[in-house]
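Issue: copy button drops trailing tokens. Both records pasted manually instead:
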Amino acid sequence: MKLRAVGEDALLASLLRGLPVSRRVIAATGDDCAVVESPGRKTSLVLKTDCVVEKIHFASAADPILIGWKAMMRPLSDFAAISAVPQFALVTLVVPATRSTMWIKKLYRGLQRAASRFDVGIVGGETSATRGPAVISVGVTGFVEKGRWISRAGGKKGDDLFVTGRLGGSLRGRHLRFVPRINESRWLTKNFRIHAMMDLSDGLGADLPRLAKASKLGFKIDREKLPLAVGAKIRNAISDGEDYELLFAISPRDRNRLQKSWRKKFPNLLLTRIGRLAQPLNNSTSQLLPGGYVHFQ
């Protein structure tokens, strides 16, 4: 069977199903980062790796500084998704021998700018030649306080669904300039009980059903309330992907306090209630959405 017929989620499920899981593993498959026990009593170790591939995640003519920025910020956005703190990064660079040294220097300038934004140290990596497109893979380690990390699976029936920022801006280049919502995520988990959370990397149409499925619930959203980026339409907000905003579930009892506190803390960043988690119907997520980005299809 071809990967095209399987799709990303089913492929990952088949690969990960047979992996052994140690008792030291707190969270692994099915969440944005792996969380494992660490020697410290108060924190857990967080690990994440991600990559960008030429002609998939960036155009060949894109500014290499922006490519480096994106390559670093993608795994950091996953740290935001579970409210973790990144610390160190390893960079693996796979490029054709025909690529110029200036391109590489600019790429690393972007990587370093992104890392320094969140006080992350690039401490090593690997390089390799390829006859194909360039690939930049970034692995990040960090920590999260025990009891503070947020998974996708904790949503409760009736929870409000919120998103940060605006959706649908990737086609206008925002996917190369975004800033992960680490500070916002840390503030949320310090001041509120967030039940479930993830970052929107593949689009609301792909990621919201994943959060609902992990929480064994369905969802209902008001499409007219989706916060749209400049020039975006509702279909862009649902399907384009690479928004890197936070999607989270919280009790409606906290709605008013959350919205009031958010406006004071982050006056320049929109926070929008887009719907709620609901009882699933017929083993589905209860509301059909156009799909977001899915690899191999």
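Record 2 (pasted manually too):
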Amino acid sequence: MKKRKIRFLYLLPFLFFLSVNNPLKAQRIIHFAGVDWEVKNGGPYGPGPNYWSDSPQSVWVDESGALHLKIIKIGSTWYCAEVHTVQPTQYGEHRFLVDGYIDRMDKNMVIGLFVYADDAAEIDIEYSKWGDPNKTDVGSFTVQPYTTPGNQYTFESPLDSAATTHFFDWQPGYVMFGSMHGHYYGAPPSQNYYIAQWVYSGNDNPDDSENLHTHINYWLMNGQAPENLEVQEIIINDVVQPLSTSTVPMKNKTPHSMELEQNYPNPFNEATRIEYFVKAAGKSLVDLSVFDLSGRKVKTLVHTLKPSGRYSVLFNARNLSSGIYFYKLKTGKSVLTRKMILLR
């Protein structure tokens, strides 16, 4: 009896390999953050290349609704984890609430938060040391291909807690990125909570007709094993994206209860009009401000309590230089942003 048990244990790695590389196996689907996600399986293939596991030991949703991704070793092979939405996503903000000290990961590990159709239609937020244990600029915002000058912004990200929020607002003509300390469904309490901000307005911004899907992955650079040879795990508390409804209850989460119209005219050469709508029980604090490409506030247009209704405000840019600007409407925990172009 003991000999049979020992032989069976030797077979476990082989049986696991068959389970993740069986072409007849149905795709595993999980439900997370209000939508269905496919779990990647098989390999070896990219990124990496790596082997990928769809087992519940690698990818699962816990009782609180949080997603767990784990890099595990079976036999002599390391298996990574990735999920992507079943349905394509669209223009709008994609926000990821992460739990884990992602600034301190093993030098060979990468966490990716992104939308993807192919290697030429991809928007990424990634954290990794890329094989260098002493690397400090571990965060990156990228519109692929990253080799094109101006398509990537890297930044240092020393974390004081495991909770971080990362987002990109994907719009026609630009992508606005941000990473923050803490978990937020709107703007943080102050600008000091931002780790990094960046706006991309180059030519490689993908079109939403290309059917990009939202992805989250946790993988090994060039398929190299973790330096410490330990199992690694990351937790995604929530994802909020266009056409999704989060499943994680949080006190500070509120749906958008406002509208922000495109300024008119746009482009403009001195003055332009901005219309917006807010809905509130009683009065709510409304803030409408203008920012430049670096994220610096250049003008506060509205900052007052207002009842529900539709409003219009004139923005005069007589003291500003030509370029791309963003105007942001905030009420409560909800934030909307649009782009405008000033031409002299």
